[in-house]
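Hey,
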Amino acid sequence: MCHPGFRKAIGEGYHICCYDCIPCSEGEFTNVSAIFSVLVTTLIIAIFISFRDTPIVKANNRNLSFVLLVSLKLSFLCVFLFIGRPLDITCMIRHISFGTTFSVALSCVLAKTIMVCIAFKATKPGSTWRNWVGLKMSNAVVLVGSCGQVLISVIWLLLSPPFQELDMHAVTGKIIVQCNEGSLLAFFCMLGYMGLLAAVSFVLAFMVRTLPDNFNEAKYITFSMLVFCSVWVCAIPAYLSSKGKNMVAVEIFATLASSLGIATCIYLPKCFIILFRAELNTKRHLLHKNFS
């Protein structure tokens, strides 16, 4: 076996079991990117845990924030399932785990957006929206949103699961080991469901982006969903026109870019205030902004 960052090279005239380990071509070995993204997410989680009782963390539903951060971290870790020789089991796991973790993350974003809308309406005197404010509502949105993707994944695995495929026709003289989605319909249903969650979150967040400053998370959600949708709109045509390692590279890039986009757009402004503008992280400041 060759170490990470190297590949097997069989010398001309030698038996197939005899090989040298040579460095991978530039751009073929990209584990560093995924590790960096995991470390960034871990750092954000550590900051939010350390400052969990501060107003800025409480004001933006800290339970949803933690679930969203954990799901983003898992989506970064899913990238490692795309690296290396594909097997039947890894082909099944990587698509299902990728779709499920992303759907949990997007369901959290949708729940955050809905809670922003409800919280603003609940501040009006005599509003019946106050009955909808609380953990039960946000938990229900995350649960329903996630279960939809789980149902798609279960049907996909039962009817036509992904499997390892040897493509001997794409490149003359080479055998490309790749994952066959099994059912393209199921694969696009998975992507379409994620797109639906992202689109609904984007529309709702865009509509309430001008709410008072203590509900300003809607602006960050709008940008994060814009980044997410832009990445995948560009990635899907590239994925369909690629083969082998190029197809995997597109999936890895789209996963890393969209996950990192959500993490930075939603959490980077909060981390900046927590670490460098502590005077803004007070209940008095939030209330002053709300009623000014």
